[in-house]
Design brief:
The chain has about 210 residues and is an alpha+beta fold. The strands form two sheets. Strands 1, 3, 4, 5, 6, 9 and 10 form a seven-stranded mixed beta sheet that branches. Strands 7-8-2-11 form a four-stranded antiparallel beta sheet, covered by helices on one side. It contains two helices and eleven strands. A hairpin with a 3-residue loop joins strand 7 and strand 8.
Amino acid sequence: MPMKPNEREYRDFTLAVVENENNDTEERKMVNGYASVFDTPYTLYDGIDVVIQEQVDSRAFDEADLSDVIFQYNHEGRVFARTSNNTLAIIPDERGLAIEADLGGTEIGNQLYQEIKGGYTTKMSYGYTVRDAEWTDSKMEDGRTLELRTIKAVGKVYDVSAVSIPANDATTISVRNLSDGVIAEIEAERLKALELERRKLQTKLRLGGFTNV
């Protein structure tokens, strides 16, 4: 069941709300989570004779165009954040396509933040084009045909959006009040962990009679 080349597609995922208490007066309205997860099939169509599922390969975003991605609601209307002004970050990692956005720059962005925080908006989605995909067919126990589409390479990601009605519950997004950017916090934790591992390795080598790492 081939798709049209370079056709823009949209996939929806789950929003979960987590609030981090912060009493600073200048709080940033941060949301973070995953717009896509890797190697997790989700159903696009469930019919009488055929079931169509899709999954994203873990290398799908390796060469994707992630420049000037925008954060919207239902893929239309106002822009709440974007990568070009550093209010949105798109970071593929071992789990999937991680997103981090500051919605505090506009009044309407603050309203969306409160909707997510209050549980009124609980889903997200992303729009993209596919550069390469692979289809496989198999028979299910009930006799229907399972068609699995594996996205091998994404061409471009256009937007990530909070949505009212989703198609997939695979990923999560959290709401946090942070004075410092989430990305900086994650990077600091990563560097701290690397330094701890380096010190542990140095200790082991010294105990084994070695003097240097």
